[in-house]
Amino acid sequence: MRTIQIKGGRIIDPSQGVDEVADLWLGDDRVLGIGEAYAQGTADVVIDARGMIVSPGLIDVHVHLREPGNEEDETIATGAASALAGGVTTVACMPNTIPALDTQGAAEFVVLQAQRARKANVYPVGAVSKGRKGDELAELGQLVAGGAVAFTDDGAPVASASLMRRALLYSKMLDRVIMQHCQVPELTVGGVMNEGAESTRLGLGGMPAAAEDIMVARDIRLAEITGGRLHIQHISTARSVELVREGKKRGIDVTAEACPHHFTLTDERLRTFDSNFKMNPPLRTADDVAAVIEGLKDGTIELLATDHAPHAPEKKMRELDQAPFGIVGLETLIPITVHGLIEPGHLTWVDVIRMLTVAPAKLLGLVDKGTFRPGADADVTIIDTETPWTIDPEKFLSRSRNTPYGGWKVKGRAHVAIVAGEVRHSLGGIVHEAGEAATP
Ligand SMILES: [Zn+2]
To answer: Contact at 8 Å (CB) between 379 and 87?
Structure first.
C-alpha cells in the first residue's frame, strides 16, 4: 500500500465533528484515518501541513465546463485543473453545453473526459428537459445510468410549472435532486443587471428581484406537493432567502446555495460598465447581500458554490449589453469566502468547510466524499490561511480570465489538493517523497 502522511495540520472534518491538530493518513486511494492509531511506519509521501488547515476535498456543486461546444472558454480538462488550483477536488458540471447534456452518452462523455484529464473529480448534472428547451422531460433514468448526480436546466430556468412538477416527481423516484436556476424568464428579458436605482441611473435593462422570488415561491410549493427534492441555485435576493427559511420551517425538502460574488459585491459595481460584474442572477443591493449572509449564518443556505462561468476574453470584452453573463469562480472561491465571511466574523472555518464538504456531498449523494471517515475517498484540500497573495487572472489555470477580483489582495489559498490519493496540485515546498530530506 502506498501511504501519505499529512503531518501536523489543523484537521477540520465537520462530518465527524473533528477540529484538531493531528496527522492524517491516506493509503492508496482511501482515507486510513486521523491520528497515531493509523500510523503506517514510514510513509511513502510526507506532507508538512503545520500551520495549515487540512480539509476533506472541497466540492463545488455548480460549475460550467463548456465542453462540448465552447472549448474556447473552457474544457473539462482545463476546468478540472482550475478546480484543483482553487482547492476544489470535486465538481458537478452544468448541462448547458452544445449539445446539451441530456442523454446517457453525453453524461458518459463527461465522465470519460474527466478520467482522461486526471485532475478534479467531475460529476455530470443532467438536463431536466430535452435540449434544455423546457418542453419535454429528458430521460432522467438514463442520465443517472450515465453518471448524472442531479438535474437542472441551469443557464435557464424550468419555466413550465407542470414540467417542474413532473421533474420533482420523477427525480424523487430516482432519489436525485432538482437544481433550479430560479427566474421567471418573462420578467428578465433584456436585463443586464439588477433592476433598481442603479439600473435606472445607468440606463441599463433591469432584472427584478421579483423574477427570482416568484420562481422560488412556486418551486417550494411544487416541492411541497410532490415531496421532491428542490435545490435553489445561486440564491441572490432577500425575499428568496426568507422563502427558503419559511419552507424549511414547514418541513419542505429545499436547500440553497450562495455564490461568493453574491455575498461580496453589489450592483453599484456596474457603474464601471465592466462586464466582469455582469452575472446571472445579477449582483443585487446591499440589503440583499446582508440577507444572503444572514441566511448563511442561520443555516437557511447550507452550501457555497461558485457558478464558475468562464468566457473567452473576446466574448466578455464586448459592450455590457452584448457580453455574456458570468465569472471564473473556482480559483477565487477560498480567498473571497475568507474575505466575505470569515474575516468579518460571519462564519468560522468549520462552518465554511461544512458548506463545501458535508453539505454538497449529501446534496449529490456522494457517500464517500466530503469526509475523512476511514475508507472514504482520499481527496484532501490543504489550505494556507495566512500568506497574503494577489489575485492575478493571468495565472488562472482556467482557459478564461473573466473575474471581478483581479488585483485583490487576499488571504486563503489551496496549497495542496489531493485526489484519489494523488497529489495533483501543489504550490510546492511541503510535499516530500520517501528518501527526500524533509524540512526540519
Ligand atoms: Zn444559473
So the answer is: no
